[in-house]
Design a protein that fits this description.
By secondary structure, this protein is α/β, with parallel strands linked by helices. Helices cover 29% and strands 18% of the residues.
Length: 703
């Protein structure tokens, strides 16, 4: 625990970058006697500091949290006792050996989430543990926010690692679908530093912005046009736009020698009825036609699909059709469009299989393929509770709070209680860790000294910076990556087959093609610019790889045809569909853990409806209502929200996680209600494994 922690040292300031989201903003951190006193943007950082926000500013609230875990703790009855790393590694490895000997390596599962997933060292060495043991039982955070992008990249470009970034500085027409960069920045996956400011500068110069979102977001307030379709219908809107462009002979297909199945896509478009698709989306057909034509005729343009769409059942289709729209209008790898970065330290564009477990295979219970090396979080309860070969009996949660951030957390919570061995590596004992057998301390990013080549490979300019340990590590605590390495070795196997002993070894291997080392990067404390942004690398990638871009992949076409066949039946009657709202002061379930800037007034958990829906229900504003889905119910306060379209209910995400005091077992902290318990974990996008976090039908009635 956090008592008897840091040794007293003099005040000092240090340079690092934030590591709690993709923007990795440059920071100046001041500390005194081992505690954070201030965090400010590093204005000498040449790339990232302008996206600095309250998430980085309040990082000290977590680093110095009074309930922070700073020593290994093992469960004894309903409480935890502090122990040594040696005892933890000995007992965990001994039990794991027995389980694997009896049931095979897949009996050990891993879930990686924030903050662990954004730690190069911790993520790398937890992944290496499973690889070395030969387990394929990995479950990834991407299955709740960005798997759609990776699936579309795999199907269209031959690799999940192909990310097409926006060139905002030369764009004349922005089409943003399910994106709200005024709050969430121009990121995920792929980031544009200070992107919202740069986009608005283009608007001031005459560029056009069309926002597609069922809510009039902070971004939509600045838009030239705002379309508010029914949640989950973005794919149909995009198909309608492609159909209009084909009908109006506005196709401009560059590099057609490097593109497959264009004719198949055009034939598909000619079979569609724009009026029917627009009616399904509940948007005016005339507006769809006008926006499609304006987009195609603009000198430069880009279409972007982001998290709001990716968290629905049509996310993968929408991501595919967004890329197809860009491609058939000549918006790929050109100025003002979407481009592939060619930063020399990027990951190889091949999809790596685990060295001992063999090639990817369908999941055991539902038969879904992994994405980004991991299965869907929604599948984890079934993989724990379903008997048979490969049943998960031991689980490592390396950062993250999947009971809160994933769908139907009550099902996962029940399953976690049935594990034979449960290890949590994190800063605090969160909701997801309440049944853990072992609590292992995690390093805070302010205490880490590492270079993250992979995360920086998604910058829109070639830039990289080292994260520095600007704060001391609590007494007797070792970095979590070192715990994971020692655990791997105690299992009798070597992480990375012994070739890599430290995070720097791994970073150096990744940066070797550029002739860079981790020490080279550290020699530039404010970050290192590696050249200018250039275009054309996507087409070069296709040529050198000997592949073609697939405009109409068979897996996606089959899914689209299935959705078209059921489109007429896809109605929820008098039910509402729920969507989320992101705030600058909030990030998933993590920033609700502190008593500082993110405090939520007790009892003010709300559900927002437009005035027309409130009138239809006949319920007064401020009344507590019952919100019922197929799997759960919540009691929330009804509020007026004129930013949402009729039929849509807005519930803020990220709240509802308890924090426990391990030594006495008490619930020390809780804020808000957990909206994701309403989300059915059996209803998934079949290709991305993403649950319907946006668009889940619910009923609303008076209590």
């Amino acid at each position: 625990m956090a008592h008897a922690r840091d040794t007293a040292i003099e005040s000092s300031s240090g340079i690092t970058h934030c590591s709690i989201c993709e923007q990795v903003c440059g920071l100046i951190v001041t500390q005194s006697n081992g505690r954070v006193t201030s965090i400010k943007p590093d204005k000498n950082n040449p790339y990232s500091w302008r996206d600095y926000c309250i998430k980085g500013a309040s990082a000290g609230d977590h680093r110095d949290h009074p309930l922070r875990i700073t020593k290994p703790m093992k469960r004894v009855g309903d409480r935890y006792v502090e122990t040594s790393y040696e005892e933890a590694i000995d007992q965990i490895s001994a039990k794991l050996k027995r389980l694997i000997a009896q049931y095979g390596p897949d009996t050990l599962g891993l879930y990686s989430g924030n903050p662990g997933a954004l730690s190069f060292s911790s993520y790398g060495f937890s992944d290496a543990l499973l690889d070395a043991l030969g387990s394929r039982s990995k479950f990834m955070i991407g299955s709740i926010d960005h798997n759609a992008l990776m699936v579309a990249a795999r199907e269209m470009h031959g690799s999940e690692a192909v990310i097409l970034l926006p060139d905002v500085d030369a764009c004349d027409y922005f089409l943003l679908i399910g994106a709200n960069p005024a709050v969430s920045k121009m990121s995920w996956l792929g980031k544009v530093s200070d992107g919202w400011t740069r986009l608005r500068k283009r608007l001031q110069g005459g560029a056009r912005l069309t926002v597609v979102d069922p809510r009039r977001t902070e971004t939509a307030a600045h838009a030239t046009d705002h379309l508010a379709p029914r949640p989950g219908t973005d794919w149909a809107l995009l198909l309608a736009m492609i159909t209009v462009i084909v009908e109006e002979d506005l196709v401009r297909l560059d590099h057609d020698d490097l593109i497959d199945n264009a004719d198949q896509l055009f034939a598909l478009a000619r079979q569609q009825n724009v009026a029917s698709l627009a009616a399904y989306c509940d948007v005016p057909e005339a507006e769809v036609r006008q926006i499609a034509c304006d987009f195609a005729r603009a000198p430069t343009a880009m279409a972007i699909t982001r998290t709001g769409t990716a968290q629905g059942l049509g996310g993968t289709l929408a991501e595919w059709l967004t890329t197809a729209l860009n491609m058939i209008t000549g918006r790929i790898d050109v100025s003002g469009g979407r481009f592939m970065p060619a930063w020399p330290y990027s990951f190889p564009l091949t999809d790596r299989a685990t060295p001992k477990a063999g090639p990817p295979r369908p999941s055991r219970v539902r038969g879904l393929m992994p994405v980004g090396g991991g299965y869907s979080l929604a599948e984890l309860p079934g993989e724990i509770e379903t008997p048979g070969e490969g049943q998960i009996r031991a689980l490592l949660i390396n950062g993250g709070n999947p009971v809160v951030s994933g769908p139907q957390g009550q099902a996962l919570d029940r399953a976690l209680g049935k594990l034979d061995l449960f290890i949590a590596v994190d800063l605090l004992q969160r909701e997801s860790h309440r049944l853990a057998d072992w609590l292992i301390p995690a390093s805070h990013f302010l205490e880490r000294d590492e270079v993250h080549p992979y995360l920086h490979s998604f910058n829109d300019e070639p830039y990289i910076q080292a994260s520095r340990a600007v704060m001391p590590t609590p007494d007797a605590m070792i970095p979590d990556w070192l715990f994971l390495r020692r655990l791997t070795e105690a299992m009798g196997v070597e992480p990375f087959e012994g070739a890599i002993k430290t995070p720097d070894d791994l970073a150096n291997l990744m940066m070797q093609p550029a002739g860079l080392t981790a020490d080279d990067v550290r020699a530039h404390p404010h970050g290192l610019m590696l050249g200018e942004r250039t275009m054309g690398h996507y087409w070069d990638y296709l040529r050198t790889s000997g592949i073609k871009a697939d405009l109409c992949p068979s897996n996606l076409l089959l899914l689209l045809q299935q959705r078209l066949e059921t489109m007429a039946k896809d109605a929820h009657g008098n039910m509402f569909t729920i969507i989320s709202r992101r705030q600058n002061s909030m990030m998933n379930s993590w920033l609700s853990d502190t008593t500082g800037a993110h405090k939520r007034p007790e009892g003010l958990d709300t559900i927002g409806l437009c005035q027309a829906d409130i009138d239809r229900l006949g319920l007064p504003i401020g009344e507590r209502v019952k919100v019922q889905s197929k799997v759960a119910a919540l009691s929330l306060v009804l509020e007026l929200d004129e930013t949402v379209r009729p039929g849509v209910a807005m519930i803020e995400h990220g709240w509802g996680s308890r924090i426990f005091s391990p030594l006495d077992g008490d619930v020390a902290w809780r804020q808000g209600s957990l909206r994701n318990i309403l989300v059915d974990n059996s209803t998934l996008d079949p290709l991305s494994g993403t649950p319907r976090l946006n668009g889940m039908p619910v009923s609303i009635e008076s209590i």
